[in-house]
Amino acid sequence: MSATNTLSGLTADKPGTPKLLSRSAPRPMLRLLVAVVILLVLVSLPFFLAPYPLSLAGRALAFGLLVVSVDLLTGVMGMPSLGQVAYFGAGAYTAGLVGMHLSTSGVVQLLIGTLAGAALALLTGAVAVRTAGIVFLMITLAIGELAHIGVGSINAVGASNGLAGIPPVSVLPGGEPLVVPGYLYWWVLAVFVIGFCAAAVLNRSPLGRSMRGVRDGELRLRALGQNTYSVKLIAYTIAGGVAGAAGTAWVAQTQFISPGDLGFDMAAFALLSVVLGGAGSLWGPVIGAGLVIFVRDWLGGYIEGRGTLLLGVVFVIAVYVLPRGVAGIKWRSLRRKSSES
Amino acid sequence: MTTTDNPILDIRDLTLSFGSLTAVDGVTLRVQEGARHALIGPNGAGKSTLFGVLAGRLRATSGQIFFNGQDVTALSEAERARKGLVRTFQHSSLFLGMSVLDNVRLAVERTISQPKRPWPNPRRDRAVTDAAMTHLESVGLLSRPSSLCGALSHGERRQVEVAMVLACEPRMVLFDEPTAGMSVAETNRFAEIVESLPRKVTVVVVEHDLDIVFRLAERVSVLAAGKLIADGTPEDIRTNDAVQEAYLGTSSNDALFGAAS
């Protein structure tokens, strides 16, 4: 995946062009082509993978969407956050409860879960986005930990044992439950694509521009007459909704959610994925998320569960080799190329 | 001194203290609508601080600011900007990770579109882009709209600042040392831009380049050690002894303004 994108970056900007190009080089057709190829690969995975790796891929996609929500705040708006797991959890638990008591429809669970994530983000964000920098990071850490501990003490949702016995989702109300791993994976992929597209649309919208304005100079944006608090709160709410959608996908894949899934390590891994992938670009952090799940859950399986340790090593190397993450690769190679020519 | 009944900016006994240091000391000043007003004074006189208080970044310790007949002393910076009181910054303050066009679009979007709409709208976004390009054209930066602001020269960044301020649809612009670090050609260009502004836009400029001050300003106020020590026509200021004293510690007119005047 990264190889094709590196290629697209090289062809999009011919070295030696004196004019400086903006970071997102406009080559819509090529970008669309790359996106379609990647999507086709993702869609065709069930034909190649055994059930376990496929379920891992589904979890990676759900986690990837969580990472997208973290990246909206961290990369696009410049506010690193550890709190998105709370809204991920809100979406996951809501979807699980809806599945057990109301409707097994994935569409219904997705809608309600997304709303739950967004609503919780609106409530908590009203306080959190008044802060910035380290204070914001600590407040979002507290939000995540409160959700983690809070949900672990509620017996109605299984307390620390988690919410078990969630029935498999169907797409529409009254539809066939998705018990075949491939169908289930496709549903998770569909949720991921919807969430990713929503984030991409947001990124290109006026609000996305205002969010980048907050990142590059919040005070300057205020001096232009912009109410930055409302920009931040709306963005935070939308990011919470995206995290909630990710939670519903996670629950659809695993049919289980426990406080352990909203722990500090999940929040830290999500932020790590953003850094690995390259904050600010949307696709980079998704690749970072895939890398994190792959190293921790797949490679880790071969070294007796020391995946987290291995992840730490990968992270240290990545920070040195790819300071701007996976998404930064093409620009670095581009610059090297143009200085040679 | 003529005073009409309706000044656009009316500063009354404005004071700002940082602890025991009084940066702005009881300044009372009126600026008429449409005026071309310069604020001069030695380094450390409190000019930029006064701008900060007027724009709302800093809170006045005491005193009042009336803008367009309304008390804006308690309003935030963003609220004052929405009323048309905007400023540029002494040290260019741009969104360096964004393109030149996006910098101006941020300003345009706030005035004529919806900066918080979370989806694109081709028709409205096109209007925003067109307006932003018009503003860039008016400052002579049309050739590089997609350059990152961080890659611009100092003079070009100042031009972007001006384009952004114009995009705010201001009733009054506070220019804080707009020509500092500019080449002679860029300085000229800036003066032309200010001269071409419609008369409904009031201009107050803090400036060290006295050629620019006397080229643009119809009225000059002099600040020294936080106090307003003179306010009058450029001619009055040239011959004012207190101004000589503050600037040079002498009262030699020729040394300060040149023998030609």
Protein architecture, described:
The complex is a heterodimer of chains A (341) and B (261). Helix content of chain A is 72%, strand content 0%. By secondary structure, chain A is mostly helical. Chain A has a domain at 48-261. In chain A, α3 runs antiparallel to α9 (228-254). The radius of gyration of chain A is 20 Å and the shape is globular. Chain B is α/β, with parallel strands linked by helices and 261 residues long. Helices cover 37% and strands 24% of the residues of chain B. Chain B is built from 10 helices and 10 strands. Chain B has helices spanning 47-55, 77-82, 100-112, 122-138, 154-167, 184-196, 210-216, 234-238, 241-248, 253-257, and strands spanning 7-18, 21-32, 36-40, 62-67, 70-71, 85-87, 172-176, 202-206, 219-224, 227-232. In chain B, α3 crosses α4 (122-138), α3 (100-112) packs parallel to α5 and α4 (122-138) packs across α5 (154-167). The radius of gyration of chain B is 19 Å and the shape is globular. The model of chain B has no long low-confidence stretch (mean pLDDT 87). Chain A binds chain B through residues 19-23, 201-202, 204-210, 212-213, 215-217, 219-228, 230-231, 234, 238, and chain B through 55, 57, 76-79, 81-82, 86-87, 89, 93-99, 102, 105-107, 109-111, 113-120, 125, 128, 144, 146-148, 151, 164, 168.
Main features:
heterodimer, A: 341 residues, mainly alpha, 0% strand, globular, B: alpha/beta, six-stranded mixed sheet, four-stranded antiparallel sheet, 10 helices, 37% helix
Helix count of chain B? 10
Q: Determine the N-to-C terminus distance of chain B.
A: 22 Å
Number of beta-strand segments of chain A: 0
Spans of at least 5 consecutive residues with low confidence of chain A: 1-25
Numbering strands along the chain, what is their spatial order in the largest sheet of chain B? 6-7-8-3-9-10
**Largest chain-chain contact?**
A-B, 33 and 42 residues
Report helical residue fraction of chain B: 25-40%
Q: What oligomeric state is this?
A: heterodimer
- Largest sheet: number of strands, sense, barrel closure of chain B: 6 strands, mixed
Secondary-structure element order of chain B, as H and E? Answer: EEEHEEHEHHHEHEHEEHHH
Strand elements of chain B, count: 10
Q: What portion of residues of chain A belong to β-strands?
A: under 5%
Largest sheet of chain A: none
H and E string of chain A = HHHHHHHHHHHHH
